[in-house]
Specification:
With 393 residues, this protein is of the alpha/beta class. It contains eleven helices and 15 strands. The strands form four sheets. It has a six-stranded antiparallel beta sheet, covered by helices on one side. It starts with a strand and ends with a strand. The structure holds NADP nicotinamide-adenine-dinucleotide phosphate. The site of NADP nicotinamide-adenine-dinucleotide phosphate has 26 residues, from strand 8, strand 9, strand 12, strand 14 and helix 10.
Length: 393
């Protein structure tokens, strides 16, 4: 029997037959007759180039099938067929694909438009493992990063994939599948965590990765992950994400803004740059936490030389000090940020709490205004060039 697969379709009831998708498709998978515009399942490579150019949204239709609909069938349609029942495992795979894609798309929406990878980023591997066929990783270690009395438990967890290929790039996420079922009786869907180690492994040239996870009071997955101990086995989906990646161009300059565990991908970026033999462009980080002892990796971070990484560690609940957020420090450092904004080699990354977006955007707007620029125009141009990235939850 054929394996279920996801087929790209176009909704004939909504399509206005402008043929923009057909002209855009780089592999010639879209065609038409007098009746409909259709997608050839044998050619479509899911590159998604056709999705943003469609003026109606009719292009964004998907069905899980065991046998793909032929061109002749699609030409004859007046409306899309309903989703066939293709068995519970494929339904789970479809649900996983859609949930993971939707979660990441939602996390990236603060960029103000379609996210794009840096031009020099390496090509990521995605969706190698899923809920039906997870990778099984072994816990190599779990270490508390925050002090016992900080009130925040953030852990550094190292997962080893043994002989299973699990290639990741800095900035990608993986899905941890907690065991058991939810209140609805269905197996838990994976929860996304950013990989906080570089592409060549937490330990160089080992097939292992690190995660940075905060224990949430009622969090099913965060408690599961934070309770894992050395030797435990974990089901992992992914890798996920093809846009929140670092430039491979060593001269690129990175401006990174994060809160709490949103620092995970920036640890990976920094370690990648530290391990690169050639001298690389400078990096600047604005990193917000409540106190130094609740700031993940406070000690190791302070050891990274300032010439590689200019650090602005910002604390919101330091006894005896005024509350300070990352956006406040950005305003205090507006000269340095202005200089970075003017440089076409600068890439901006924002990661962490969704609530920070508004303040960070406001800071960028004020800094841009100060040099007679319109921030949204600048930001959109940077995003289109793959130089502006947001991942917030
Ligand atoms: P947190 O400890 O709750 O907060 C970190 C700091 O951000 C605190 O100083 C907090 O100040 C401050 N903050 C709160 N509201 C803010 C605002 N509007 N603007 C600027 N700063 C603000 O952070 P967390 O729980 O670690 O959360 C990090 C976020 O990153 C989560 O949403 C998580 O999902 C996301 N994330 C995690 C990963 C991962 O791999 N684990 C990866 C990517 C993103 P006060 O509390 O004093 O107000």
């Amino acid at each position: 029997m054929n394996q279920p697969l996801k087929q790209h379709l176009i909704d004939p009831e909504i399509c206005i037959r402008c043929y923009t998708c057909e002209m855009t498709c780089p592999v010639g998978a879209i065609t038409h007759d007098d009746n409909n515009v259709v997608v050839d399942a044998a050619n479509c490579n899911f590159c998604m180039d056709c999705i943003p150019v469609c003026p109606t949204g009719s292009i964004d239709e998907w069905r899980v099938v065991t046998v793909p609909y032929s061109l002749e069938e699609q030409f004859s349609w007046a409306e899309l067929p309903v989703q066939q029942d293709v068995g519970s495992e494929s339904e789970q795979i479809e649900a996983l694909d859609e949930v993971m894609a939707a979660l990441l798309a939602d996390a990236h929406k603060g960029a103000g438009g379609k996210a794009k990878a840096p031009a020099s980023a390496a090509k990521p591997s995605v969706n190698l493992y899923n809920i039906g066929k997870p990778a099984i990783a072994k816990v190599q270690g779990s270490y508390r990063l925050t002090s016992e009395d900080s009130g925040t438990e953030v852990r550094h967890i190292i997962l080893d994939f043994g002989a299973q290929p699990f290639p990741v790039l800095e900035g990608q996420s993986i899905g941890i599948i907690p065991p058991g079922v939810g209140a609805d009786g269905k197996p838990h869907l994976p929860r996304l965590y950013s990989v906080s180690s570089p592409r060549d492994g937490e330990r160089p040239n080992y097939n292992n990765i690190a995660l940075t996870v905060k224990r949430e009071e009622h969090g099913t997955c965060s408690n599961y992950v934070c309770n894992l101990r050395k030797g435990d086995e974990v089901s992992v989906a992914g890798p996920f994400g093809a846009t929140f990646l670092m430039p491979d161009d060593p001269s690129a300059r990175l401006l990174m803004i994060c809160t709490g565990t949103g620092s995970a991908p920036f640890r990976a970026f920094t370690m990648r740059r530290q391990r690169m033999a050639a001298s690389s462009g400078d990096m600047m980080i604005f990193f917000g936490a409540r106190t130094p002892d609740s700031l993940p990796y406070f000690g190791p971070l302070n050891k990274v030389p300032e010439r590689l990484l200019k650090k602005h560690l910002v604390f919101s609940r330091l006894p005896g000090a005024e509350k300070e957020y990352v956006q406040d420090r950005m305003m205090a450092e507006q000269e340095a940020i202005t200089e970075l904004l003017a440089d076409p080699d600068t890439h901006i990354y924002i990661c962490g709490l969704r609530g920070m977006e508004e303040g960070v955007e406001r800071a960028f707007s004020q800094i841009a205004e100060g040099i007679g620029e319109h921030w949204e125009t600048m930001r959109d141009a940077m995003r289109v060039a793959g130089r502006y990235h947001v991942e917030t939850y």
